[in-house]
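REVIEWER CHECKLIST
Item 1: Sequence provided? yes
Item 2: Single chain? yes
Item 3: Sequence as submitted:
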Amino acid sequence: MCVVGLVTALRDEARCISATGVVFNEPIHINDRAILWLSGMGEQSARAAAQGLHNNGAKALVSFGVAGALDPDLKPGDLVLPESIYVGKVLPVTIAWRNRLQDLLPTNITVVGGTLASSLVPLTSEKEKIDLANAIGACAVDMESGAVAEVATAAGIPFIAVRAIIDPVQFSPPAALLGAVYPDGRVNPVRLIALLLKRSVHLSSLIRMGAGMHTARKTLSAVIQSAGAGLASQASDQSVV
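Item 4: Structure as written out by the authors:
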């Protein structure tokens, strides 16, 4: 049996896989073929989660969640199933697994391939996104997939990334907001109110971010509904190779 380990950074991402019982920074057994780990944001947290999943019996790894668009044609809710991850170097995904997953998805989901970039810091401006796109030719960016890919590569096990776009190139989360966000994406209400009162963050930005997350979560939930928490690996132990 091939047990798949799924790394999510944000609680909202994890809830697309399991609606209840999502504990922070611990392995959560979804069923006999899937283990979830809510890691929190960033490369170090994702790396620890991926290694923890492998130590707990995962024989394949998935980086699952949201991403920012680098391609101006991408919009919230579009799904990125990359063929490679850029983290200072290019790391491949398991193409047969990636393609099989795409074949299972509803036709109303826009799916793109290409390269997913991994960033050590959040990109909070259109210029930062355009500069990264021009430098490496990636279509989208997140902060965790590179670390998960590196753990999978070192362990010699299959890997894919499943990332729904949350923000387009033209819009990014305000840099000031980062100080009011917990590692798992929850917001500190006291700090948020202070930012709003100081107009460091505008209500319109929060509304737009919420709408983007809602749309991205619909796509991620549809992926799980179509392929299961094992993401199309459940046919046999060899089906993700």
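Item 5: Key structural point noted by reviewer: The longest strand covers residues 60-69.
Item 6: Recommendation: ____
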